[in-house]
Amino acid sequence: MTNNTKQTSPKVAHLAAGTLHDPKASAIAKKLTGSALAQSHSSKQTSAEMEHKAGEVLHSTKYSQDTKTLAASVLAQSTKDRKRK
After folding, report:
1. Under a CB-based contact definition with an 8 Å cutoff, are residues 51 and 78 in contact?
2. Hey, where are the domains in the chain?
3. Could you tell me the pTM of the whole model?
């Protein structure tokens, strides 16, 4: 599998940290936050499960722009091999 060297940007990591501490944040926002923060300053890649959830968030109208930003960051860090399937 191809190694993806992308990492969560400082701006998205800051958004993720704020989401993590927000008691009103949705469960999916917190899951995306965990994935985004795990990929900050590391070579970890998005799992297939999180890739699927992030895609659902981006295709839905019920999530906030912040949640969609987290989802986009998580998807950007998925592997190219899985993206082609």
Report:
1. yes
2. 10-78
3. 0.83
Round to whole Å and give the CA distance between 16 and 33.
5
Cβ atoms of residues 70 and 11 within 8 Å: no
**Relative orientation angle of helices 65-76 and 10-20, to the nearest 10 degrees:** 130
By the 8 A CB rule, do 41 and 2 touch?
no
Beta carbons of 8 and 36 less than 8 angstroms apart = yes
In this predicted structure, what is the pLDDT of residue 45?
81
Count of alpha carbons within 13 angstroms of residue 52, beta-carbon side: 4
DSSP tally for the chain: helices H, then strands E: 5, 0
Q: Name the DSSP letter for residue 2.
A: P
Q: Using CA atoms, how far apart are residues 35 and 44, in angstroms rounded to an integer?
A: 9
Percent of the chain, pLDDT > 70?
88
